[in-house]
Design goal:
four-stranded antiparallel beta sheet; binds pyridoxal-5'-phosphate; alpha/beta; seven-stranded mixed beta sheet
């Protein structure tokens, strides 16, 4: 059984803050500061360029990939870390399209994160007018998986509502129609158990700064199923994905397996912080995390609905149908969220009217949830959000 009191003690949580935004940016693992400091002084400072070999910087993308792989049902050697998630989306969709020649449609849904849609759109435009990005309602995805579709590109858990797609069923359906799948796990990795191998998923991508707590700007990851690992051609064919980067050949030859999905120089400082959070994840079992996440989200929904009738649940009521976040709709949700943040309860807001709260058992417990609801209730019942300073929109919401 995962010891959640022990994991909570390993995070730096500022005094007076109830942090319900780990679905956007996880908090700082206490060990990260010392680990990064050590990397800076002992590795970069002393080893200089020899750190790539001596300190193992060059193998960090695959070492970290294997550690993340455990949380998402991916075998060692199938996940690599690097770049940003938007870049990894592009890379996965481009490779998947090439593996399905003759088909020109990428199917997605309007619950997908806009950057995924933008990246796919940008890629398809550069491939030619005959390519099409088809975007349908999340509930209608299954009926649109036809033999015209080359690639199904979905984010498993909707960033606004927390609604969860059935990865196994949709992947099976896609394969039955000859469609290759790309799953975005930004709101799944570290939030819910994922079984990429068991679902027979083709490609998956995700970020490490949300539930995994890798820090702002932490690199993304990409998974390629073993059946495609040596045939997928990386559209972003950077030198570190080359079979022999230090041969400096003028022709590109993809590296073996997942190595080919590397692009350029990896962000070592950021990966060092990510390694600190993976030490905490090594103490956690995803089934325990899921059970506790469901307990916390159920508690939150029940308490909020009992005391805040103006808030309308936007997430699925059935816990099996949602990820690890709960969203409520409220017309003045932006102001209400600003009022909450001013009282130390940090969630976030997604236009036009969604107040989002993330539940992260590694460092949030039942007492935190009750306390957050007490403050939310005070703000809602006494209209404390209805003040001009809470209505001024900031750059990041
Ligand atoms: C589902 C999803 N996909 C893609 C992205 C974009 O990620 P990045 O900014 O790392 O490129 C995000 C960012 O929050 C996201 O939530």
């Amino acid at each position: 059984m995962t010891d959640f009191a022990a994991t909570k003690a390993m995070f730096h949580l500022p005094e007076g803050v109830l942090y319900l935004d780990g679905n956007s940016l996880g908090p700082l693992p206490k060990a990260a500061a010392a680990k990064v400091q050590k990397m800076l002084t002992e590795e970069w400072g002393q080893m200089l360029i020899t750190g790539w070999n001596k300190a193992g910087w060059m193998s960090m993308p695959t070492d970290l990939g294997d550690r993340i792989g455990r949380l998402i049902g991916a075998a060692p050697g199938t996940v690599v870390v690097g770049d940003t998630l938007s870049i990894k989306v592009y890379q996965a969709v481009a490779s998947a399209l090439e593996l399905n020649p003759g088909r020109k449609v990428v199917l997605s849904d309007n619950g997908n994160f806009p950057s995924d849609l933008y990246m796919a759109d940008g890629l398809l435009r550069s491939l030619g007018e005959e390519y099409e990005l088809r975007v349908v309602d999340p509930e209608a995805v299954a009926e649109h998986i036809t033999d015209e579709v080359a690639v199904l590109m979905l984010t498993e858990v909707d960033y606004r509502t927390g609604r969860k797609h059935d990865m196994k069923a949709l992947t099976e359906l896609a394969h039955a129609r000859g469609v290759i799948t790309v799953w975005d796990l930004a709101h799944s990795a570290g939030a819910i158990p994922v079984d990429l191998a068991g679902c027979n998923a083709d490609f998956a991508v995700g970020c490490t700064y949300k539930y995994l707590n890798g820090g702002p700007g932490a690199p993304a990851f990409i998974y390629v199923a073993p059946k495609w690992a040596d045939t997928a051609r990386p559209a972003l064919s950077g030198w570190l994905g080359h079979e022999a980067p230090f041969a400096f050949d003028l022709d590109y030859r993809p590296g073996a397996g997942i190595e080919r999905m590397r692009v350029g120089t990896p962000p070592v400082i950021q990966m060092t912080a990510l390694a600190a959070t993976m030490d905490i994840w090594d103490m956690a079992d995803m089934d325990d995390v899921r059970a506790q996440s469901i307990a916390l989200t159920e508690q939150f929904i029940q308490q909020v609905e009992a005391t805040c009738p103006d808030l309308q649940l936007a997430s699925p009521r059935d816990p099996a149908m949602r990820g690890s976040q709960v969203s409520f709709r409220f017309a003045d949700g932006y102001a209400a969220m600003q009022a909450l943040i001013a009282r130390g309860v940090i969630g976030d807001f997604r236009a036009p009217d969604i107040m989002r709260f993330g539940f992260t058992p590694l460092y949030i417990d039942e007492c935190d949830v009750s306390r957050a609801v007490e403050i939310l209730t005070d703000i809602m019942q006494n209209r404390l959000w209805d003040r001009p300073e809470f209505k001024v929109r900031q750059r990041v919401t």
